[in-house]
Amino acid sequence: MTDVLVIGAGMAGSTAARELAKAGLSVEIVEARDRLGGRTFSVRGFCDHPVEGGAEFIHGEEADHWDFARSAGTTTRAIPQMKDMQFNIGYGTKSLPATLMHPGIWASFKILSVIKRHKGADLSAREFIEKHGFKGRARIMAELTLLSHLPGGIDEVGIAGLLEDNVLKLETGTNYRVNEGYDTVTKHIGEGLDTRFGFVIQQIRYSDDGVSVTAESGETIEGRAAISTLPLGVLQSGDIEFVPGLPPSKLEAFKQIKMGPVVKILLKFREPFWNPKVSTLVSSEGPVTLYWNVFYGMTGERPSVLTAYTTGPRAAAISAMSEEEGVAACLADLKNLYPKSDPASLFLESQKIDWPQDRFARGGYTFILPGGTGARAKLAAADTGALFWAGSATATTTIAASVQGAHVSGVHAARQAVEWLQKRG
Ligand SMILES: Cc1cc2nc3c(=O)[nH]c(=O)nc-3n(C[C@H](O)[C@H](O)[C@H](O)COP(=O)(O)OP(=O)(O)OC[C@H]3O[C@@H](n4cnc5c(N)ncnc54)[C@H](O)[C@@H]3O)c2cc1C
């Protein structure tokens, strides 16, 4: 029997399995898809360079998986925050300094410090904005600050959860794109480990004596212990039966954290109609949260590709559309954002990556609902015998719901499993 079964071959699972193998244990990864990487998923073949369909950035220089990014032989390019950006908050598309020069916005400048000082009862983003009296353009900027990183609506995102999840760290510092594709890093970590692809788990039995997982095909594999890295959306969906049922604290956590919708549409054009010196266009209006100029920061001639990135209610709406309808919505939106250009006449092709429709993700990533602080610790708790828990939704010590969160959670759960097996002899 394998010492540890690792469920899922995304960043959390690959990391956990690598750590367990390093500790001298036998490990088998079971994965529903036919590839490593999970929600790190680099699209190759859309143009002559990888474009991210899942996670886009390594956030900051302190991210815990940098060593692996380097040992994978990847190169990265910096995408500074709050530089080379454009905003459209309903008054035309403007570069960042021009957006900020309007006096109507100035009241929003204090928002980060106001959030950091937040104490007392938790508030939704809407309640917080109303309590602090952000109005007009300042309100729009405040909403963007609170919501643009998270896949939730204004009544869903909780301020205390946003603080607990270290989301404000995303507002500063530098992001990095992996030139060879982000999934190169995950694949490097998971490379060479014993992995069963196409193993779609439908039942997990656990006790102190071990864990067995049964696939849709009826096949069962057993381990002396196991680590689940199943995405929260999959756990919440009820697709997987747990025997015995999960403890009440985990079921409670399922209600306090939401797996929010995130959809990307990759858009290829004959030539750019945007300013190549701009990295990102953030929009408070229209169907798309932001557009990335994908090859920003690269020298030489590059494909003209934008990623339309939508989160929360806007992503839910795009997810409900066909790809054709979604593209039409993006092209109309881009025409609105750049009225002097003609995006439709330059458009070549698209690819929609619809994470809410993906049955092995059931959403993009997670955030904490109002009143839900502490829920990630409940998800991560080692309270199910020989079955341990990892995955980005369980991360509490770094930016939660991120690739680095997944990585850290994998290291943590691997340690728990090693200790457990040592104690049991
Ligand atoms: C569009 C998008 C953009 C993002 N941008 C960023 C970003 O810029 N930076 C950042 O840090 N993070 C970002 N994230 C979040 C980040 O990608 C995830 O938090 C992280 O990759 C999750 O890793 P994980 O290992 O926890 O889960 P996953 O990568 O989802 O791995 C879980 C694995 O479990 C498998 N699985 C599911 N169901 C079953 C089953 N029934 N049986 C067997 N296996 C199963 C899945 O196939 C998957 O491989 C983004 C996510 C999305 C979707």
Concise description?
The protein has 425 residues and is an alpha/beta fold.
Structural write-up:
The radius of gyration is 22 Å and the shape is globular. It is α/β, with parallel strands linked by helices and 425 residues long. The relative contact order is 0.20. Helices cover 31% and strands 24% of the residues. The mean pLDDT is 95. Among the domains are: 2-39 and 183-257 and 366-424, FAD/NAD(P)-binding domain (3-Layer(bba) Sandwich), CATH 3.50.50; 103-170, no CATH class. A hairpin with a 4-residue loop joins strand 12 (210-215) and strand 13. Flavin-adenine dinucleotide is lined by residues 7-13, 30-33, 38-40, 54-57, 59, 199-201, 229-231, 234, 240, 262, 264, 355, 360-361, 364-365, 391-392, 401-404, 406.
Helix content: 25-40%
What's the N-to-C terminus distance?
15 Å
Assign the CATH topology of the domain at 2-39 and 183-257 and 366-424.
FAD/NAD(P)-binding domain
Ranges with pLDDT <50 over ≥5 residues?
A: none
Distinct ligands: flavin-adenine dinucleotide
Strand content: 15-25%
**From the alpha-carbon coordinates, what is the Rg to the nearest angstrom?**
22 Å
Instruction: Please identify the top-level CATH class of the domain at 2-39 and 183-257 and 366-424.
Output: Alpha Beta
The helix/strand class is: alpha/beta
Number of helices: 15
Task: Please state the second-level CATH architecture of the domain at 2-39 and 183-257 and 366-424.
Answer: 3-Layer(bba) Sandwich
Beta-strand segment tally? 22
